[in-house]
Each structure stands twice: as structure tokens, then as C-alpha cells.
Amino acid sequence: MGKVLVVDDAPVIRLLLTRVFETLRKDGVELLFAEDGYEALRIVEQEHPRVVFLDVMMLGKNGFDVCHTIKKVWKMEDVHVALLTAKCQDSDRRKGAEAGANEYITKPFDPDDLLARAKLVLGIP
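RESULT FIELD:
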């Protein structure tokens, strides 16, 4: 069916999203996780997930940089990137759009909304 990658340096967010997306496994979706931008890029390159939920504020390579690499450098237009961030300024939203993000979702987010978004992109009713 597809793969969903969750990238966040906060263990509590990764755990929450593991629980949110767990129901997708019954539909054949594989869940992948990364703790930082470098690991995220390695996983995207090797596993080619269909959906990436990507934290923006991380040490090293931030979410904007990771998104830019996926969308602009690697030109992986079939990878749906949703930025997850506490940064809610218009300038941050523009930066996300310029990096090629498909969505810009601010924290705190509604877990049910994230699940619905993933299902929509994956084509799961």
C-alpha cells in the first residue's frame, strides 16, 4: 500500500504518531521513523515513503532543508511532505512552500486529522 515516515527529534511526538498511525498497518502501510534530518534523508532515499510527516525544528538538518532536498534537489514529487511545526508565522509558511512542502501543519495538531490526511494521500477509505 505504501510507507509513512515520521520525523521528529522528540520521542514523545514519535510515540504519539506511532499510536496514531498504527491502524494503517492493517491496510498494509509500513511505518518508518527518524530522529533527525540526516536519518530522514537516508530513509527517504532507501525506502521512498509515500508520506512524510516532518518536524521543522531539529538540530543539524532542519525540516525545511530536508523538504527542499526531497522536493527540489531529488525532485521526488510523488513524496507527500507535511511539515509539522510550532512555527506559525507567515514567513515560516512561505519558507515551507518554497521548500516544496505539500502541507504546513502547526502544533499542537489533531491526531485524528493527521490520520485522515495520511489516509487521503494513501488512498485509504
